[in-house]
Amino acid sequence: MELGMTDDKYSQLLPASDLSIGSITIVEREGQLVGEKNLPRAVKIHEHGEKIESLEKEIKKKDNEIVALQKTLQALQEKNDELESALDRKGEEIDTLQSRIDELEDEKTELQRELGSVKTDLGLLRKEVDKLRKAKSSQDQTNLKCRQEYDGLRRTLETTREDLEKKTKESEELKQEVRDIKESHHKSLLPFGLGARAHSKPPPAIPKTSGEALLHLGEMCRQLQIKLYRFVFPRTSFKHINYKVDAIHRHLKKFQDSDAQKIWESIQERFHWDETHEEAVTLLQDTRNIEAHPEISKDSLQRAISITAQSNNLEDNWLSTKLLQELLKIWETDLSQ
User: Fold this and answer.
1) Which stretches does DSSP call E strand in 184-333?
2) Helix axes 321-332, 258-271, angle to 10 degrees
3) pLDDT higher than threshold 90 for residue 49
4) Where are the beta strands (DSSP E) in the chain?
5) Source organism's superkingdom (predicted)?
6) 315, 319, 320, 321: CA torsion to nearest 10
7) What residues are paired with 25 via a beta bridge?
8) From CA 157, how far away is CA 172, in angstroms rounded?
9) What is the pLDDT of residue 39?
């Protein structure tokens, strides 16, 4: 193959001095390049052309790599800009948070001051509460005392009403018996109008008969029950009311007076008081002559016990001399000692 190239086609590859000889014809024969003249230079030109082409490809490749790197660099720059923007925002957030921290510190200081003030107020309030509690306790005690007095008065009124009903009935019976006694003993009675001696109380008489003995023992039981009631309920008892032991039980149960309950328990323990004593005083008072309340003494009661034991006038065998002596002991004992 023969290639024909002019000087202007090689002007970019060879210096002008090399092209001054005119046209060059290259003939390929049996795989060899043969120029009409300057053959070695033609071979070099061909090699340079291939090298140039290779370099151009390499340059193009490098250009592509540069473009890719520039894009990557631009992306990194944009990312960096975003990070810097985010960093700026975080810095602003940090400043905001620091400002909030400063505000909270100020609020904390104010709250600590208020806490100290509240603690002081709380101390004063506790003192005031203690004073109110003491005042309430005092008022409760006053109320309790008033309540006890009220219960006592109510209990007394109830007892008075019961006793008045009994007393009315006894009074009618008493009047009849007094009339009967006056008729049977009119000769032994002192006449009226003999001065102060006619109205003075007779001295305690010593009983001589079984009936008189029962009268004395019944009077002892009457006085004994009144004595016990007044000792158990000292603030709410009245002078002219005939109290009985069953009234003590009723009022202790009804009014729940703890002080009175303790007093009654101490009496029971001191004198070994039980139901036998209560039945005895009830029986003796019920069987006594309802004529009056005779003057009695320890001697008259001792005599009455003796007569009762000798006459065996009581239906119940359990009402023994020993039991009567125990009742006499309670009757003559000062309970306050």
Assistant:
1) none
2) 130
3) no
4) 2-5, 24-29, 32-35
5) Eukaryota
6) -100
7) 4
8) 22
9) 66
Give the C-alpha separation, 213 to 272, whole Å.
Answer: 25
| Dist CA 197 CA 65 (whole Å) | 158
3-state secondary structure of 296: coil
Look at residue 76 in the predicted model and tell me its pLDDT. Answer: 92
pLDDT value at residue 203: 60
Residue with tokens 């992306």: 75
The string over 6-33, giving b where at least 16 C-beta atoms fall within 10 Å of a residue's C-beta and e elsewhere, is eeeebeeebeeeebeeeebebeeeeeee
Which of 94, 88, 40, 243 has its CA nearest to residue 155?
243
Categorize the per-residue pLDDT at 284 as very low, low, confident or very high, splitting at 50, 70 and 90.
confident
Supply the mean pLDDT for the chain.
77
pLDDT for res 254: 87
Q: Running DSSP on this structure, what letter comes out for residue 196?
A: G
* Positive/negative CA dihedral, 61, 67, 72, 73: positive
Phi, psi of 35 (to 5 degrees): -95, 160
Query: % helix / strand / coil in the chain, to the nearest 5?
Result: 70, 5, 25
Taking each helix axis from N to C end, the angle separating 258-271 and 210-232, rounded to the nearest 10 degrees, works out to: 140
- Pair of tokens at residue 262: 């303790």
Mean pLDDT of 287-316: 72
